[in-house]
Amino acid sequence: MELRFSAAEEAFRAEARAWLAANVPGAARPRGEDLRARRAFDLAWQRRLFDAGWAGVSWPREYGGRGATLMEQLIWYEEYARAGAPEITTTFVGLNHAGPTLIACGSAAQKAYHLPRILRGEVVWCQGFSEPNAGSDLASLQTKAVVEGDHLVVTGQKIWTSFAQIAEFQELLVRTDPAAPRHRGITWVICPMDAPGITIRPITTLAGGQDFCEVFYDGVRIPLANVVGALNDGWRVAMATLSFERGTAFLSEQVRLARRVGALVELARRVPGPRGRARAVDDDELARRLARASAEVEAMRAMTYRSVSLAAQTGVPGAEASIIRLFFSELVQRIDVLAMDVLGAAGTRQLGGAEGTPGRWTERYLAGLSQTIGGGTKDIQRNIIGDRVLGLPR
Ligand SMILES: Cc1cc2nc3c(=O)[nH]c(=O)nc-3n(C[C@H](O)[C@H](O)[C@H](O)COP(=O)(O)OP(=O)(O)OC[C@H]3O[C@@H](n4cnc5c(N)ncnc54)[C@H](O)[C@@H]3O)c2cc1C
């Protein structure tokens, strides 16, 4: 296989690289507990992207996006990560879930109100899908909503809602017809997070942050005009949302991972190794694993290029996206474990800290455990691969 970028794509790359070099914020993105500071930083960065015409690279032009081709998106996210541009976290749901879902399924009024606010960096969205008894099996969700006049009245609980405490809006799934077959009685509705009756309780994670929450709904009134798609049509809309979940923004995570392996090799050259070695990299076993990690990152890149070029030709994202997703999440964890082995006892002394410090690697290791859970667990990914790629019997 030979893959080359066209002259127009190379010109796009040069433009993206130049803009990023001049505009990526010099100050480090706030991390940790100060979520308000993270929100302010992310929204200001989003505004800057918007003002320069780089907001929503994958969104169609008619909705204010860049309308980039798949190859251009790949180039943009490569350059984005290479330039050390801010990770997309608090603005993720708005840009990669809610926005594309509204474009695909929303009413004209919903699009007109919400899409510009998301692109301009004025609002944060969160996702209220998972419940204590509905994660992988999302269709078993129980949070109910009854129609009263021109409102839905919502009662129930969601869990693992990332950034609920700093969000204006939520993409909320509720059960509106308990008598219907379980996939048919669900509705996708836009929930304003300041509505009376909502209680948000942050959950502290293993890595010490409070990035997700439990959200309780006690008779919360939401206008029927906020329903996306039709009443009881929410499963179809939710499937559209989940199809945007990984999107092309995932590419920047891959480039970031490649850089992290490079940083890990540098770390192994600086810190003492096991069994009395002067440097960790002098240990044969660690050196072998570092080399393997570098090769695996390259292999994943090649799989991604192949997948994107196929999708660009056929117009349909292939099921191999699940293979890449699974490989990525397990590779992240292998690299995190390797970092802990390179650090040895130094990895147990501190949690968190500046980039490059042992505590930062330890924090990454703990946070990385969620890689094989969020956005569909590794077992669910294996089920999808077995079913849709290999055609195995159920
Ligand atoms: C960092 C992070 C952020 C998140 N943010 C959000 C958010 O913003 N909004 C939101 O709604 N949710 C969010 N989630 C929740 C996430 O979507 C769920 O955790 C995920 O879907 C798994 O559901 P569960 O936790 O209920 O686990 P379960 O579904 O209960 O799974 C438990 C175990 O059983 C296995 N299992 C379950 N079913 C099968 C099966 N059919 N075959 C084989 N094995 C199976 C799973 O793989 C897992 O190992 C987040 C999760 C994480 C980790």
Compose a concise summary of this entry.
Helices cover 46% and strands 14% of the residues.
Structure explained in plain terms:
The protein is α+β, with helices and mostly antiparallel strands and 394 residues long. The protein has 3 domains: 7-88, no CATH class; 125-232, Butyryl-CoA Dehydrogenase, subunit A, domain 2, CATH 2.40.110.10; 247-389, Butyryl-CoA Dehydrogenase, subunit A, domain 3, CATH 1.20.140. It contains 11 helices and 8 strands. The protein has helices at 7-23, 35-51, 70-82, 92-105, 108-119, 234-244, 250-270, 284-314, 321-343, 358-368, 378-389; strands spanning 125-128, 144-148, 151-162, 169-175, 186-192, 198-203, 212-223, 227-228. Strands 1-4-5-8 form a 4-stranded mixed beta sheet. Strands 2-3-7-6 form a 4-stranded antiparallel beta sheet, with no helix packed on it. Helix 3 packs parallel to helix 7 (250-270). The longest helix has 31 residues, at 284-314. It is globular and about 75 Å long. It binds flavin-adenine dinucleotide.
What kind of sheet is the major sheet? 4 strands, mixed
Q: SS-based structural class?
A: alpha+beta
- The top-level CATH class of the largest domain is Mainly Alpha
Number of strands: 8
Taking strands numbered 1, 2, ... along the chain, how are they ordered across the largest sheet? Answer: 1-4-5-8
Into which percentage range does the β-strand content fall? 5-15%
Report the bound ligands by name, code or SMILES: flavin-adenine dinucleotide
Uncertain segments are: none
**The CATH topology of the largest domain:** Butyryl-CoA Dehydrogenase, subunit A, domain 3
**Count of all domains:** 3
What quaternary form is this?
single chain
| Overall mean pLDDT | 93
